[in-house]
Backbone:
């Protein structure tokens, strides 16, 4: 099973700042089958990024994904008030599909 | 636009079987080539992929659930279902159904989630 470790656990930032979230895999993620989700309290997760760097439909371009192999990054270029949430990475290249433990982006 | 909606008992007794259904609207569950998945999230914790059923009917499960899980499809009702046997308090969670798209195997469509409590 591929274990995904996200860091930091919590990121305290202000609106307008840049956020960089890390996701490290215990083994190489095949074909960059790595996704990022945003989850707000009481809501289902929302797909932001798939294939490590492709934005899902309707996702603003301030969200970008990068990386390959075992190291991946989600960057939010300028935080908007609605971006404060928990973010999860997920790999779907190797069964069982697994999620990271999440990074909370909170308002400073 | 595909929409998913979970339903089922919100309370299950320990050692019994948890049964949930995901009703699909906006498209036929038997058309296309998709993975229909179940994912759960214990309160305050992260997400766990439980398993999926492919349009062809083949299934794949998370080994962590061993032989307790069954996912099936009812094409006549446009639904797919989850059964989890021998539940314990550790199975209490919000349960989501989800689906991929033509572009990616990642989970694009999600249900709103349903909370299941395990208690006698």
Residues:
């Amino acid at each position: 099973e591929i274990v995904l470790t996200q860091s930091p656990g919590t990121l305290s930032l202000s609106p307008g700042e840049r956020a960089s979230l890390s996701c490290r895999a215990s083994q190489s993620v095949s074909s960059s089958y790595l996704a990022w989700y945003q989850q707000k309290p009481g809501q289902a997760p929302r797909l932001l990024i798939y294939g490590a760097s492709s934005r899902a439909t309707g996702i603003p371009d301030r969200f970008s994904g990068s990386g390959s192999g075992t190291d991946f990054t989600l960057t939010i270029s300028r935080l908007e008030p609605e971006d404060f949430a928990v973010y999860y990475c997920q790999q779907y290249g190797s069964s069982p599909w697994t999620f990271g433990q999440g990074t909370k982006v909170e308002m400073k | 636009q595909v929409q998913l909606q979970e339903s089922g008992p919100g309370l299950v007794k320990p050692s019994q079987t948890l049964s949930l259904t995901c009703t699909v609207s906006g498209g036929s569950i038997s058309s296309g080539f998709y993975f229909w998945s179940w994912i759960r999230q214990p309160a305050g914790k992260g997400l766990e992929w439980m398993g999926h059923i492919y349009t062809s009917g083949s299934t794949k499960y998370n080994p962590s659930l061993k032989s307790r899980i069954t996912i099936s499809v009812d094409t006549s009702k446009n639904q797919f279902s989850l059964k989890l046997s021998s539940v314990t308090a550790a199975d209490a969670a919000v349960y989501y159904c989800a689906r991929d798209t033509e572009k990616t195997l990642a989970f694009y469509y999600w249900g709103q989630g349903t909370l299941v409590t395990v208690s006698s």
Notes: The first strand of chain A starts at residue 4 and ends at 7. DSSP finds no helices and eleven strands in chain A. The interface with chain B takes residues 1, 33, 35, 37, 43-47, 50-51, 54, 56-57, 88, 90, 92, 95-102 of chain A (CB under 8 Å).
